[in-house]
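Support request from a user on the community tier.

User writes: "When I paste my structure tokens into the form, the page sometimes reloads and wipes my input. The last time it worked, I copied everything first. Here is what I submitted, just in case something in the input itself triggers the reload:"
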């Protein structure tokens, strides 16, 4: 699919300085799309932007923004002004690995803001403009953790369930208006943040870790065809077993047991 022809010239990637966001940005730059990159840390974001400019000869602008801030959407609107965005990737996310009662109300609120409220607001802002033009694309990163209760990932998992249902709902509402919406439901992926958590070997129902590039490639294969998808053959098999074969109680137990083992909780 020629993204430039189908959607337009400019893509915005939120959470773009490394990992999955960087993989999305590199893919889009290789498709000759100009980029707006958003991340919290200025130095790695600008260093990555320079790499993309030099390698792909595209225009790349950077906005440093804490997407967990309640005023993040307002700030981004001020920075972007009337800049047209043709494709949005919302990849940014916060998570807490551990018992629900061990994290503060303030920290949980930041997770909810970064993972649900800010993407919802950005999807509305850019989605409405795309509808008026009759074309555009919105990609929201979800997670396998959001398919059922996930012990020790409770708030993160709940926000990812929200993201998937939001994307699927908008896929239906906007599919005949020229705007493609998709939720990319990834499993364990070899991003810097995942590696920093030092997870141990997982159990039978936990498939092999994917690369960010593999997830991104599959996402663009699915975009415009389905409302959501689970990336990776192993993840799809595990999801089928967990969602279609096992009782809900057992699926929740397996998720909690797996996380407990991975992170020695």
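"...and here is what came back when it finally went through:"
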């Amino acid at each position: 699919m020629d993204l430039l022809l189908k959607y337009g010239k400019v893509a915005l990637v939120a959470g773009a300085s490394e990992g999955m966001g960087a993989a999305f940005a590199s893919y889009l730059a290789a498709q000759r799309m100009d980029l707006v990159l958003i991340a919290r840390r200025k130095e790695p974001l600008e260093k990555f932007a320079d790499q993309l400019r030099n390698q792909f000869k595209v225009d790349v602008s950077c906005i440093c923004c804490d997407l967990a801030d309640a005023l993040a959407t307002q700030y981004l609107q001020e920075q972007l002004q009337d800049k047209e965005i043709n494709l949005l990737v919302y990849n940014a996310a916060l998570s807490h690995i551990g018992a629900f009662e061990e994290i503060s109300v303030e920290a949980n609120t930041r997770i909810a803001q970064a993972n649900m409220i800010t993407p919802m607001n950005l999807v509305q802002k850019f989605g409405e403009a795309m509808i008026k033009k009759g074309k555009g694309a919105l990609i929201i990163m979800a997670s396998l953790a959001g398919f059922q209760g996930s012990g020790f990932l409770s708030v993160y998992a709940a926000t990812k369930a929200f993201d998937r249902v939001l994307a699927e709902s908008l896929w239906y509402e906007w599919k005949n208006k020229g705007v493609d919406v998709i939720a990319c439901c990834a499993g364990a992926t070899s991003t810097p943040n995942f590696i920093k958590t030092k997870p141990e070997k997982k159990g039978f129902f936990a498939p092999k870790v994917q690369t960010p590039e593999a997830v991104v490639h599959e996402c663009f294969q699915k975009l415009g065809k389905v409302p959501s998808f689970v990336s990776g053959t192993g993840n799809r098999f595990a999801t089928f077993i967990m969602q279609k074969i096992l009782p809900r109680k057992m699926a929740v137990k397996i998720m909690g047991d797996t996380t407990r083992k991975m992170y020695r909780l």
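Agent notes: The reload is a front-end session timeout and is unrelated to the input. The longest strand covers residues 136-143. The CA atoms of residues 1 and 221 lie 8 Å apart. Escalated to web team.
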